[in-house]
Fold this sequence. Notes:
Blueprint: E1 4-12, E2 16-28, E3 35-46, H1 48-56, E4 72-73, E5 83-88, E6 91-96, E7 100-105, H2 106-114, H3 116-122, E8 130-132, E9 135-143, E10 146-151, E11 154-159
Antiparallel strand pairs: 1-2, 2-3, 4-5, 5-6, 6-7, 8-9, 9-10, 10-11
Amino acid sequence: MTGLPGAQGVQNGDHDVQWDFWWHDRHIDAATPALSAERVREQHAAGAAIGALYERMHGTTGWLGLPTSGEVDARAEPVEEWCCYATFEGGAIYWKSAHGAVAVSRVVADLLAGDAELARKLGFPVAAERPMLHDVDDGVQHFEHGVVTIRGGVAEAWVRP
């Protein structure tokens, strides 16, 4: 993605902040080196519980970076209870009422995005990634129906039978 990022936070209700993010191109006027026009290319919002966790994790300056999607409906069927996720440069945040908002790293998000059947079997993350005892660069993250381990930057899923 090229261009310059922009962001604006808007208070929604007593506690929720909805963040709107976008990328724009700069067009410089030949007569003056000032920003003369902007063209919005992409806009994504992170609101409610996902936005609150994102803000606690330092938003655009944290390890998640800028959002690359808005909230995505993650239900298999429209009659199911609402659950969703949003993707970011450095990972994703998943939300389900049973577990709240939980962040996953880019390597875990890529594993889930690359295999829809595996993502369905694992279910939603239930807790944040924790470092493994022997190496702080390696981690483990628990899901509803399994575990994802991260070793040497590679994620591997273990689904409960």
